[in-house]
């Protein structure tokens, strides 16, 4: 992750030197409240599932390695703040390159796989930076592999190496069609979508929201309140009890309704 920050700083410096860079910065940072529609809010919710790995137990997997004294509330705030910071840095790194390279894409994979390669191509040692960037993004995705490794091994270190290799190979093999979906498999479509887009739709719009829905219901209705308060480091003070009740109400009623509405848009 520190490497990713360093690379972003280098990319931002190069992007800001491009023609019309400040116009693109304003386009990226200036709020457009006309986009604040129900569809826009649902898209933001979709992005939150992806950006924070909600619904795939990534946070639970990471949390299982934390010390019992770790304050989960403070950690949550740090994670969200870090995520927002990285998102802003990514936008500053990419959007300025749209005009000079005549890129019309508004988002999605093309911003990373089309804009960034062209930007790196114009930089000294750009190929090296791009390789480092890809390496940094791959290492950031290790958590997705760790979820399955941890579930299978149950933190038995004697089995980790074997299952890491097995699951890594399976992930690589099953990822090949997605990697080729804009190349030799461009003609392969699932429900009218390229293979990569179909998998993205399945994971981001269905699997992750369903996972978050079940997790919310489990935590709200089944998980013991006393244990939840202990994990959240909440004591018997009235204001903390009040916050806990608000949190519980959101988990039980508000969040499930929002997620169901979100899923219904794609059913």
Automatic annotation (TrEMBL):
This is Sodium-dependent transporter. It is found in: Membrane. Its main location: membrane. The chain crosses the membrane at residues 41-65, 77-97, 128-149, 161-182, 202-223, 244-266. One of its GO terms (cellular component) is membrane. Pfam families: SNF. InterPro entries: Na/ntran_symport, SNS_sf, YocR/YhdH-like.
């Amino acid at each position: 992750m520190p490497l990713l920050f360093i690379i972003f700083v280098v990319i931002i410096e190069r992007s800001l030197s491009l023609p019309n860079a400040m116009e693109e910065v304003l386009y990226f940072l200036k709020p457009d409240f006309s986009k604040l529609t129900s569809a826009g809010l649902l898209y933001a919710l979709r992005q939150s599932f992806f950006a924070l790995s909600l619904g795939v137990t990534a946070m639970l997997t990471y949390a299982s390695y934390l010390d019992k004294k770790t304050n989960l509330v403070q950690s949550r705030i740090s994670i969200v703040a870090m995520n927002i910071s990285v998102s802003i840095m990514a936008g500053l790194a990419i959007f300025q390159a749209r005009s000079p390279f005549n890129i019309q894409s508004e988002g999605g994979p093309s911003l990373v796989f089309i804009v960034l390669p062209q930007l790196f191509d114009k930089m000294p040692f750009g190929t090296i930076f791009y390789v480092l960037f890809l390496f940094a993004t791959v290492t950031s995705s290790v958590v997705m592999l760790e979820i399955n490794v941890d579930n299978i091994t149950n933190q038995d270190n004697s089995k980790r190496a074997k299952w890491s290799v097995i699951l890594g190979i399976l992930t690589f093999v099953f990822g090949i069609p997605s990697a080729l979906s804009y190349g030799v498999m461009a003609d392969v479509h699932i429900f009218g979508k390229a293979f990569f887009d179909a998998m993205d739709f399945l994971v981001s719009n269905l699997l992750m929201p369903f996972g978050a829905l079940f997790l919310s219901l489990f935590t709200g209705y089944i998980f013991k309140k006393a244990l939840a308060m202990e994990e959240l480091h909440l004591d018997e003070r009235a204001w903390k009890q009040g916050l806990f009740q608000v949190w519980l109400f959101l988990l039980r009623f508000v969040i499930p309704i929002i997620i169901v509405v979100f899923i219904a848009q794609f059913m």
